[in-house]
Amino acid sequence: MKAFSRSYLIGIAGGSGSGKSFLSGFIRKHLGSENVLVMALDSYYRDLSDYEMSVREKTNFDSPDALEHDLIARQLEALLKGQSVQKPVYDFTSHTRKKETEEIFPKQWIILEGLFSLYWKEIRDVLSMKIFIETDTQTGLERRIKRDTRERGRTVESVTEQYRQSVIPMYEKYILPTKVYADIVISGTAAPERSFQTIINELNPKG
To answer: Are 84 and 1 in contact (CB under 8 A)?
Structure first.
């Protein structure tokens, strides 16, 4: 696997259901999967296997403390040095990390996408480009319901309750303030082609 002396690292942040994963996938498709590595912050939730399920379910997963950001920073540093890393694999149904890990290799483009991609200074400092996606709360809720009921075994009721009691307050407290660090602010309801072109224009300001 070819290593790069310095990969181009893009951070994509925004609220839950804003379209971070979708935009990341769109960029990967158009720049080529062989050239783009997408790293989801969701993989780095802390392992709660030492706790009873009742305790795990009460964990605030919309707080930055729920993520092992030191591990994220170390693995990003290694990737930027051209080294492979063992990325955690997280099981959202049990709120635990699986024993197996996924070995990932640096590529020309690395996308770090997640709620808190712009939150920690040590991570912001290594980003080549910082993107924030804005989306209204109703759209975010609808997208989160669709994802969590399909992929994480949740009910519509539980997703809606969590969204109103935890997701929105945590967004306003921790995530929205990181918008000031963004090089580009994108609408989460804009056509992906338009958002992609905005990013390309930023990369090539002279056209």
So the answer is: yes
What does the pLDDT look like over 123-177, one tens digit per residue? 999 999 999 999 888 888 888 898 888 887 888 998 898 888 888 999 999 999 9
Q: Residue 139 is inside which H or E element, if any?
A: helix 137-151
Give the position of tokens 């990013």: 199
Burial of 56 (0-12, 13-18, 19+ CB in 10 A): middle
Residue 192, H or E segment: helix 192-203
Hey, what domains does the chain have and what are their CATH numbers? 8-202 (3.40.50.300)
Given the DSSP bridges, would you call strands 109-113 and 8-14 parallel, antiparallel or unpaired? parallel
Residue 2 has pLDDT above 60, yes or no: no
* Total-model pTM: 0.88
In residues, how long is the chain?
A: 207
